[in-house]
Amino acid sequence: MFRHVFFHELRLFRQNPSWWGSLLVLVLLTVAAAWNGQLRVAARSAELADAAAAAEQMKTTLAVQLRKYEATQDADRPPAANAGAMGFSILQTPASIPARPLQPLALGQSDTLQDTYPVTAHAAYSFMNAAEIRNPNNLLAGSFDVAFVIVFVLPVFIIALTFDLLSREKERGLLALALAHGVALPAYTLAKCMARAAIVIGVTLAVSVASFLVVGADIAAPGALQDLLGWCIVVVLYASLWFAIGLYVNAFSLKSETNGVLLANIWLTAVVVLPALVNVLATSAYPAPSRVTLTTELREAATEAEQQAAEAREAYFFDHPELSDEQAPGAFFREVLASEMAIEMRIDPLLEDFERQSRERAGVVNTLQFLSPAIVTQQALTTIAGTDEARYERFRQQLREFHDVYRGFFADRMLADQLISSADIAQIPVFSFVETRSRWPASAITALLLITVLLGALSLRRYRSYPILQAT
Question: Most buried in the list 158, 254, 272, 384, measured by CB within 10 Å?
Answer without folding.
Answer: 384
